[in-house]
Amino acid sequence: MSEERPPEAQPSWSARFLHHLWSANPVTVTALAVVLALLVGGVLIILSDAQVRASYGYFFARPGDALDASWAKISDAYATLFRGAIVDPGDIARALDGTGTWAAVLRPLSESLTSAAPLVFTGLAFSLAFRGGLFNIGVQGQAILGAIGAGLVGFLLPLPVVVHLLVVLLAGALAGAAWGFVPGILKARTGAHEVITTIMLNSVAAIFIGWVIVQSWAQDPARQDPISRPVDESARLPRLLAWLDPGLRVHLGIVVAVVVVAGVAWLLNRSRFGFELRAVGMNPNAARAAGMSVTATYVQLMVIAGALAGLGGATMVLGTAYALTALVLGSVGFDGILVGLLGRAKPWGVLAAALLFGALQAGGRAMQVGAGTSLELVQVIQALIVIFVAAPALVKATFRLRPARAGAITGVAARGW
Amino acid sequence: MSVSVEASVAAVEPAPFWSRERRAGLGLAVAGVLVAVGFGLLAGDRSASFTLAETTAGPTVSIDGRLGAVLFGLIGAAAGGLLWLPGAKRWFGWLFAIAVVPMVASFLCWQLSDATLSVMPLGQVVRSSVLLALPLIFGGLAGVLGERSGVINIAIEGQFVVGAFSAAMVATLLASVWAGIVAAAVAGLLIAALLAVLAIRYLVDQIVVGVVLIVFAMGLTGFLFEQLMRPEPGRYNQPSRVPTWQVPVLSELPLVGPVLFRTNIFVYLALALVVAVYVGLFHTRWGLRTRAVGEHPAAADTVGVAVLGLRYRNVLVGGMLAGIGGATFTLQATTNYSHGMTAGLGFIALAAMIFGRWNPVGVLLAALFFGFLRALAFYLGTIGSPIPSQFLNMLPYLATIAAVAGLVGRARAPAADGKPYVKG
């Protein structure tokens, strides 16, 4: 007869929450990855500033100087980043006591959403293809073609107000889809690996836009530099907060982006095509044995991904730039790849990741102007975040996280050519 | 129970009439005729001249532009017909090349007859081809070393960028090109170390790691360029040029002499490395182990080969080579670093590796081919060709797509390429 031991007291809900918070679940790993990336970014900030470097020259004589200078520089840079991305508390105080405007309070958020909108589309383009087993590195090229398509229809084809906007977005999507079709059909017919073909098409697209904007029918007649004519007013994405302050740049693109995210989530998780593409992505041989046409799926998938990327390029041109230049899209394609990876190739995750990266970019612009730290640092931080997220074991080891109970990240599944 | 032994009639299917050689041959013949007609009609009135030297002065060989375009096109068509001969299967690659060369000549006749300067100095074009192929050779060899062991290295472009940047910066700071080259190798090694750790130890997808490392490398060099080099170019961004060395007798040879034997260390190093990697891969113990690890790491492991250690070492050495490839951008003709100077050549190096079938000599030939296309695009751009310069600049990228799409045969990667190895 064994003694009955009193039942163990169940730990309280909050204790369990904290216990699982410090384990390798996706949210914690992402947050800690951001922290690690910002730390490495801080080191780079120190290295790149001549005065701070100089103060390290006599570190052993007066360590306080070097540490003070480092802390001042890093905190200044990151505080400017935050103020440019989310909100400046000083602006709130000024708005409350009447010396400032609410528009100024909303400006950082408006900038973040403006930067995030194209990233949602390009992130979706990469991640949808990724779920189907394709590495769509050609997002940049497809976005460029989308920008060209939208821009050309925007200033060559006059149409009434709402119709013009719809047609222009459609043109951008179709142009991007065509640029996605080429690697898709090559992969289906010849087995050419999409990594190389899409990267080459990126370069071809970048050269092509340089040619288009200097053609007589496209170049802005009022300017000497290589820039196209501006798109018509009726084709531009309207600014959402123009009633408050016309200078707030957030535009309809972000709303379209959220709608498209919902659409892609439905496509991926609830439609037959989504089921086929996920099956092909996980195991093409099994999918083929089950009767699905892997090659047809690849082609359809690249067309849809290209259309999404084209919408991203169109959003950039119709919402922000209003005219085509050689570098109008910046690196929105490659940033989209990072966004897709950070969002773990899930549509709503991509939206969250795009919002984060949009905030980083808006903050980075403020940081460049306010703290004199180059915008490229944001690129480094973004890449580092993705590296740390893609190798969760690295973050887990660094912070001594427990293995997650549920929702453990297995990292991105490894496969080859 | 009787076992009926049937005379086994070897049921060999007769080879289909439209085999690959015959289809390619017909395609080339048709293309040759189209080229002859098309370029012949487009050709201008002048004659196209070629000279072996590196300048346009001196003796030239001339042919009337229109005649040359038509003639070479027809020769290309006839060469396409050669593919219908029996035994063509074995020599497919060479016959394909023999058919393509006259079509290129026809193209040149058209371009030269319609341009402002109608002489093409072949010596200069060959020298440009070799120099422009250099980063592709280094990058391609780096890719071969990694992929033959089973690790995909997409980050060659990133290694070029950090190599070019470090070479410029260290060569300026220490006033020595040799220090610059060493720094470039170290920089490439560091990126390769990141790739190796993330791919081999943390099992992250290798293509994803490669792309992210490229973004990281470009962001890092861009940041350091903006913060350090742009404000003070004299202090950080003025390396000197590598010296030219001459091999006494061999440099007198007509076309290849000056190009291959009166040149800088990068060319010599590239050629030596091609030979070294070829001999290493196919005639040494290290090469055998590397190839075994790339094809079937589990089997190699049972025999006692240190799979992971070998992969690490090969990827790191490959990174050094790619770094040196990056140094070729900033220590030769253009002696400073500028943003975007690598222009996607790291990806063309990958294509050269696939086109060269993961074989060092193949990589050399593929790199020379892509280098020739780039040299051609530059030269035709300078002499005022009728085609807009932007489309000429697209040539190497379009050719890469055509090459990878298997217009010259299917290539097979090492079997375990891209698959991480986990013991047990």
Please provide a brief summary of the model.
The complex is a heterodimer of chains A (417) and B (424). By secondary structure, chain A is mostly helical.
Quote the distance from N terminus to C terminus of chain B.
Answer: 47 Å
Which pair of chains has the greatest number of interface residues, and how are they split between the two chains?
A: A-B, 51 and 53 residues
Describe the main β-sheet of chain A briefly: none
Helix content of chain B: 55-70%
Weakly predicted, low-confidence segments of chain B:
none
By DSSP (H or I, 4+ residues per run), the number of helices of chain B equals 16
Tell me the fraction of residues in β-strands of chain A, as a range.
under 5%
What is the H/E string of chain B? HEEHHEHHHHHEHEHHHHHHH
Distance between the termini of chain A: 64 Å
Q: Which geometry of chain A do the CA atoms define? A: globular
Quaternary structure type:
heterodimer
How many E strands of chain A? 0
Strand content of chain B: under 5%
Number of helices of chain A: 17
> C-alpha Rg of chain A, in Å?
24 Å
Helix fraction of chain A by DSSP (H/I, runs of at least 4): 55-70%
Which spans of chain A have pLDDT < 50 for at least 5 consecutive residues?
406-412
Structural class estimated from helices and strands of chain A:
mainly alpha
Q: Report the count of strand segments of chain B.
A: 5
How large is the radius of gyration of chain B? 24 Å
